Batch of 2 targets.
Target 1
Amino acid sequence: MNNFKDLKVWKLAIEVAKKTYLLTKTFPFEERYGLTSQMNRCSVSIPSNIAEGCGRKSSKELHQFLSIALGSAFELETQLLLSYEFGFLKEESFVPFNLNICEVQKMIIGLQKSLNLS
């Protein structure tokens, strides 16, 4: 599965990363080395690991990289929740973005299941 750019999950993960960067630009300046940096890094990790897994030779390796991408998606969701709790995001920004992240998580899990490694 070398053509990762055709995967809907990769495309949505790219959108999540772009939205993350836009959202974190609104965070307080003192968070640039805290949540801002952490959220930006893990958001980029999601599509990056999907792509890297697609470049591997076996389904088992792809599954492993999808697991890493999924972990990053859950990490990003946690950081988004914290950002909302700290008041860095308003509900109208938080809710749809959280839904996007959850959709990426579901799609990664679905792709993992389709690999039939059990």
Target 2
Amino acid sequence: MTASVTEKAREARAALPQLAALAAGVKKTALEAMADALEAGLAEIEEANAKDMGAGKAKGLSGAMLDRLMLDRQRLALMASNLRDIAGMEDPVGEVIKSWTAPNGMKLSQVRSPIGVIAIIYESRPNVTTETAALSIKAGNCIILRGGSEAIHSNRVLARLMAEAGARSGMPPGAIQFVEITDRAAVSELLELAGLIDLVIARGSQRLIRAVTEQSKIPVMKHYRGLCHIYVEKSADVEMAVKIITNAKANRPSTCNSVETVLVDAAVAAAVLPPLATSLASAGVEVRADEAARAIVPGWNAATEADWDTEYLDLILSLRVVSGFDEAVSHIRRYHSGLADAIVTDDRETGERFLRMVDSAATYWNASTRLTDGLPFGIGPASGINTDRVYPRGPMGLAEMTGSRYVIRGSGQVRE
């Protein structure tokens, strides 16, 4: 009989004190064993993923969703490699963030500590299962995984392999929990468990995140949609702009950090749009453009008002010609999701002004929005990208999976 969501949360809570106090070396060994288990279980994972892919095609899932769902040998090798990278990172638990001596002589330190029990509710991508579980364990957090029904077979196998390998290596049983119940009632039950669960991470569609936020009695950290923009300013290097836009759209369009809307300054539209059209066409990108852009590239499709507010997650790009910096920033502020936005410009003052005025989790000057992730940022694999304005904003690497507390060493001080 499948354990209830509440039972799984209780098991995770019971495992928390032991996991939080687990030696760094034991956690490292456990994570390395998990990576080995993924490689040893390759055939079983591929079989499970084939079931999910078959069911997804039968349900008519979009190409973007199928791409997120698919596990091939290259992706599985990367998943195992990421687990080893996490294993080899410096253990954050107990790290001193800052220390000082108070006027009364007390010695204070602010140190990193586990958040506690984390539940993640997510859709489609099986690599979220492995990376979030690994980051949580390394940071001393127990994890409850509730993936989407479209990836149930893949996620079940991945979670079991990791939990079994970790337990054999000294990780407390119960530290990794997987919710096998695909009914939405399981999510509703999960979101009621304040006191057992400390944080919910929501990753997926706008509908999923809204539902989680509205129902939850537990703090929610949101990995919201990625309606990303790139603005080509009048002083931009044309070759650089074309390269950045093509990468941001075509590198892997199904990801939340791919660009969805490009804004081009009218002063350089005639120079930028023809080579951009050639580059995007060679990458198979459909462009939906406004009237001013189509006057320069007549072959592009006409954009509608809905296009400016659409996260395509596909080889589709909306494009608009703007009168200048102010109109570009106004457009971005109106439509962006707060995940990542960029400017391409050779003017330092304009670039710095954009960085100040566009308040995204990641704001770029002369770089692709596709870089918004833990590995390109040099912080290691990430469990998601927090688009909330509260800390930690942006990619949630290992340090961001911890909280902090104060440790005080006194010599008899009292409050006067």
